[in-house]
Every structure is written in structure tokens, then in C-alpha cells.
Amino acid sequence: MYLSGTKRINEKNHLEIGGVDTTDLVKHFGTPLYVLDEFEIRNKMREFINTFKSFGIPFQVAYASKALCTMAICYLVEDEGLSLDVVSGGELFTAIEAGFPTNRIHFHGNNKSVAEITMAIEAEIGAFIVDNLYEIELIESIAENKQKRVNALIRVTPGIEAHTHEYIQTGQEDSKFGFNLVDAAYNAAKLVHQSKWINLLGFHFHIGSQIFDMKGFEKAIERMAGFYRFIHDELDVELPIINAGGGFGIHYVEEDEPLSIREYVVSLVESFKYHFYKQGLKLPEIWIEPGRSIIGEAGTTLYTIGSSKNIPNIRKYIAVDGGMMDNPRTALYQAKYDAAIANRMIYDQSEVVSVAGKACESGDMLIWDIELNSPVAGDILAVFSTGAYNYSMASNYNRIPRPAMVLVNEGEAELIVRRETYSDIIQFDVVPERLKKNKVKILG
After folding, report:
1. Which three-class secondary structure state does DSSP give residue 266?
2. Domains of the chain
């Protein structure tokens, strides 16, 4: 069992996070419950920043808010001096409402709407990450209408297939994201470079997520350095910024072996230096966009165990009061997790079980075949490394309310997302008057 951040086993044999006993969290806030370790979040942000600072080069670390976006998280990101990567109008609105400095916001997305682009231009965000020719036309038109010049990086697919699940590969040529190297990306760069309203800062690439091996990054950087040389020669411009995206892996299960944050950053910087200097180019300002590697391991989800089903010679199922509604990642791309019985952390008798959710779907499984400490109804199951994408992808499937979220630090627990109620679920339902009248007639 890998316990990161402030997670520890206390004298009561309970799991403790941020100095708070998880059984006390359950008593006060109920389950399912997302728990975030503030110390761990801040520590990882600082490790990214401090490692870059040690090189004495220009850089920008932008938190990828798609991993987890709430107003409280935006406050933490601003407080630690990071920029913010958003991918929708909703994430942008959350950041604006949280008072996040808009000049440190980067807007991604492969199909930004007119309303989203307008909102971003009016907010004077730091940069668009441009994904296609249609978007360039929209930005050009809206910027001209608003009489505001905007900054942009062009997203490219460097033709690198990261060694990860196919659903979270993004850098291969057959991808919905970005312009392929070289011709499509060059044509886009030429168009933006000639624009009166768009200032071309550089290029962005992202090869995938949950990556442990830096070879993919190194190959992508080599290709990008060659492309920057080509752009320099063809357009007579030395672009000031390059964005390497994110995708740095984390611990989910014991066999995972991610690099440290420092190792990821050092490898990136050294590769950039080598390949850009080899091309006779000045090192551009390096931008990255970590999300999961900042927030993932800092998150733990607490559930209450309910029913069980033992199928002799096959497996034993235990069911919890959440599932694919609060964590669809196992169903979506076979994600794996580690877990423990939070109210009995030291094993007295182990048992291999599979953890099922409560949704009416055979595929609603959280963990297959995990060894736990003889789980019984009423026990608290802690599932680790659930900070990234769990809440972001959560739904009201089966009309089940989404969980609350708390931030724990130095013995205190603070609510940052309240638990949804049944009333919340129906608040946007509208019943046409004719149906109401028909009901009156039938009852009458």
C-alpha cells in the first residue's frame, strides 16, 4: 500500500489524512466523500516551480484544471503562483468567479464555441491554444469585433504514441487534437503569423497521460526543435514559447513506478536545451500543464461498504454507496486503484474481493480482485489517488447525487463542494403544462 502526502495510520488503527481521522470525516460529512490533502497539493506545485527555478530559465507551470476544477482549487493554484489551463467556458467561468488572474489563463479545446471565445477575449486571457483552422477564423473575427489583440499557441500532434491507454493518447497523428506536423502546422502558423489580431507565441504539444517513460517526450522535443528551426527559416521568426503539455504519471497501484516531479522536469529541460541548441536556436520559454501529477495522489474517496455477494470458486463482490457516478474511470478505460479499510488499517485477516458500485450497470466496478482486511457492511473503504478526473467526470446517473468534497490540512477539514441533494437533481426539470392538465383529468 502506497500512502502519499500526509496519509498515515494513527494510534486507533484508522487512516488519517491531513491530521484528520477519516472515520471522523465520515461521521461529519457522510459518504461517498472526496477528501483532498492540501499539504500534498501545495507540495507538488512547489516541486514543479522550484525545479524549474533551479535552472534559471523562463518557464510557466499551468495547472490543468480539467483534472479537478473548483473555486477553492483555483484559489490554491493562484496562491502558489501557477497559471491555469482551462478547456471550457465552465472552467473559465469558475476561474473568473474565483478571481484568478486572467492573464495567467490558457484556453484549450478542439471545438471552442463563439460564446466561449468571446468570454475569453473579453476576460483578456493570457493565451489561446489553437486547435484548428475554424478556430483561427473565429478568434480573428471576434478579436477584430472586440478590437482586442490576442495571444495564441498552435497545438500540433508530433506523431508520438505514448505508452499508455489508447483513450488517453493524444500525440499520435490520428488524433482529434491539433495540426499534424509539418505541412498542416506550418500553414496554420503562417496564417496566424500574418494575422492582424492574433499574436503567435509558439506551439503546444501533448503526447498523452499517465506516462512513466520520458522517451516519448524526448522524441517529441527533438521533432519540435526541428520544426521551430523550419518555422524560423520559412517565416523569419524565432518563436518565444513552447508548451510541452503534461501527462506525467502517478501512483495508482503498487506496481506503478512514476518518476519524481523533479526527474520529469529535469529530463524535459535537458532535452529542450540539447535539441534547441543543436538546431542553433535560442531556448524558448518552456510551459507545461500538469494536472493529475499535482492533484491525483492528493485525493482519496471514502465509501461505506454495504451488501456482498460470494460466488463460490469465482469471486466475492462487495458493494459500496458510490460507483461509476463518482468515478467512471474504471468503466471508461480500465483504470486501476489501490484501497484499504479506513477504520481497520492493520490487517488481521485478508480477503480477495472485487468492489462494485451501486449503479444499475454490470460494468459499474471500481476495483477488480483486491486484497482487503475482511470487509463487512458498515466498514469505510478508502480508495486512493482519486483526486484527478473523478469529480470532473462525475454524473447523476441513476439520479444519484454527487458527493461532497473536503479539503484537509493540519487537523482541520473544510467543505469545498457541498453534497448534492435530490432537490438539486430535479431543479432543472420542467413539466409542460399540458402534462399537468392531463394528470388532473386522469385523477379527476
Report:
1. helix
2. 8-36+296-426 (2.40.37.10), 108-290 (3.20.20.10)
Give the residue numbers of the binding site for substrate: 292, 329, 333, 361, 389
What are 150's strand-pairing partners? 198
Q: Tell me the three cell numbers of residue 416.
A: 469545498
Distances (CA, A) of 346 to 179, 341, 350: 52, 9, 10
User: Is 69 buried (19+), middle (13-18) or exposed (0-12) by CB count in 10 A?
Assistant: buried
The SS3 of residue 162 is: coil
- Residues 174 and 221: beta-carbon distance below 8 Å: no
74 included as an active-site residue? no
Annotated binding site: 247, 289-292, 329, 333, 361, 389
Residues annotated in a binding site for pyridoxal 5'-phosphate: 247, 289-292, 389
Rounded to 10 deg, the angle between the 38-53 and 71-79 helix axes is 40
> pLDDT of the chain along its 444 residues, tens only?
789 999 999 999 999 999 999 999 999 999 999 999 999 999 999 999 999 999 999 999 999 999 999 999 999 999 999 999 999 999 999 999 999 999 999 999 999 999 999 999 999 999 999 999 999 999 999 999 999 999 999 999 998 765 543 433 444 566 677 899 889 999 999 999 999 999 999 999 999 899 998 999 999 999 999 999 999 999 999 999 999 999 999 999 999 999 999 999 999 999 999 999 999 999 999 999 999 999 999 999 999 999 999 999 999 999 999 999 999 999 998 999 999 999 999 988 899 999 999 999 999 999 999 999 999 999 999 999 999 999 999 999 999 999 999 999 999 999 999 999 999 999 999 999 999 888 777 666
Annotated catalytic residue, options 360, 430, 431, 443? 360
Beta bridge partner(s), residue 381: 303, 341
Q: Is the dihedral of CA 205, 193, 128, 51 positive or negative?
A: positive
